[in-house]
Structure formats: C-alpha cells, structure tokens
Design goal:
Helix content: 40-55%
Structural class: alpha+beta
Number of strands: 4
Radius of gyration: 21 Å
C-alpha cells in the first residue's frame, strides 16, 4: 500500500487574493519602535506567532531556537539599561551631524511594548555533527534568524508590531537572562499592538539610508554579470518602482 503520509502537496500557485495578502505582509512589515500600545497581546495571537516562528526552516531540521517571553517590567527595565549603555557607546562612533541625527532616533520599544521576546540559538541541540552544518557552522544561527523573520511576518499579519533591538551587549544580555552554556541570544524583540505602521521604514524617512535599487544588486551567472539579462533587470526596476509608489499589489501580481 502506498505511503500517503509523504504525498506531495499540489504545486499550484495561490489565488490572487492570497498572494496579495502574502506580499502585502512583506511590503508593509516595519521595525516598530515608538508606536506601541499598552494593550496586552491575547494568548491565542501570541501562540500563533510563536507557532509560525517554530515552523521556520532549519539546518538538518535542528530547530535550534528557544523563545523567552518577557513580561516582567523589572527584567525589561534591566534590559533597557543595557540598551542605554550600548546606545551611548554607539553614538560616539558617529561624527558631526550624523551623531546628532543618531541621537534623535527612537531605536527601541523595550518598556513601551507589552512584552519582549528573546529568540535564542542552542548550538548543541542536534549534537556535534548536523546535516547541512558540516561545512558552514553558522547555519544554526541563520536558522534562528529565519524563525525571527517568520515571527515578524506572522505578527504583521496579526496587526502586531515588532521591533528588533540590536544595540545590546550580547554577553551581558545572556547573563541577565540566565542562558545556559551553548545558548546564545540571536534577537531581542519588542512585540505588541501599535497605533499604526509607517508607510516607509523610519530610517528611510529620517534620511539615514535609502532603499537601494534592486536591479543593481542582482547578478546573473556570476558576480557583476547583471547586464546579461535585460528583461529581468527591466522587470526588477518596474516592480520596485511599483512597490515604492504603492502600486505593486494592484498592478504586478497578474
């Protein structure tokens, strides 16, 4: 008798409405800092977001992640102290107007968000030899980052904001959270309901960086050979222009 448990799912593309929802989620995802509301996140929503994270791809099906949900205000205040110290150090790395602009940026929502989540990577979870990690040891870290992205997109679909706080001393954070040996923090996230989502990334709106032209960063059959496929390059430029103008969902999914 055939083994039906391993039957392949149909490769059909999603219908237009479903594809629009997927691309809308991707295009409107934002790093949320100062727009959190104090409203608690319902357990069913948090569970769905964590389930999405747990279904991320992982090297050797290692699933190296853990998720530390932080609601306690005192713990989060101590994390915020770590951020404040690291942020002051970071500001000194910029000069002149760049430093002034940096100091005016809101770069975290640790205390404003109703909860924080630390995503970790247990580098020993699948033993010393892991399928797919034999030659690229960092694949377990990359896998944990995939879990972060899954969580972020699921949160956006749920109407929740997420902010990734990367201005932290990882060793100090590890000690504060009591992480065991071999488990390292990969992402410290702020999560919660928000007043809204910005139409563009805040750093772009602040003039810190602009979104780079996609067509300039796609290479064909080797580095520096993007010009070999003018049809693709033209489509990339048109799709990005449509996305920048807010026309991508309506015009480019046919």
């Amino acid at each position: 008798m055939a083994d039906t448990t391993c039957a392949l799912a149909a490769p059909d593309a999603y219908d237009t409405a479903t594809r629009e929802a997927v691309y809308r989620t991707i295009l409107t995802r934002r790093d949320t800092r100062g727009d959190f509301l104090p409203d608690p996140v319902a357990p069913e929503r948090l569970s769905r977001v964590l389930l999405a994270a747990h279904h991320a791809p992982s090297v050797g099906f290692m699933q190296p992640w853990n998720f530390i949900v932080l609601r306690d205000s005192e713990t989060r205040r101590r994390v915020h102290d770590l951020f404040a110290k690291a942020n002051a150090e970071a500001a000194l790395m910029f000069e002149g107007e760049r430093r002034e602009t940096y100091c005016g940026l809101k770069l975290e929502g640790i205390l404003e968000a109703p909860l924080n989540i630390c995503v970790t990577c247990d580098r020993s979870r699948a033993g010393p030899v892991v399928i797919g990690r034999t030659h690229i040891p960092m694949m377990d870290l990359f896998s944990s980052v995939c879990a972060v992205q899954n969580l972020w997109l699921a949160a956006r679909a749920e109407g929740l904001g997420v902010g990734w706080v990367s201005i932290l001393d990882n060793n100090a954070l590890k000690a504060l959270l009591g992480l065991p040996k071999g488990v390292i923090p990969v992402a410290y996230l702020c999560l919660g309901h928000v007043r809204g989502f910005h139409p563009r990334p805040e750093l772009e709106s602040a003039g810190w960086r602009r979104r780079l032209p996609l067509a300039d960063h796609v290479h064909v059959d080797g580095w520096g050979r993007a010009g070999g496929d003018e049809a693709l390059a033209g489509r990339l430029r048109d799709d990005q222009a449509a996305a920048e103008a807010g026309r991508f969902l309506a015009e480019r999914l046919g």
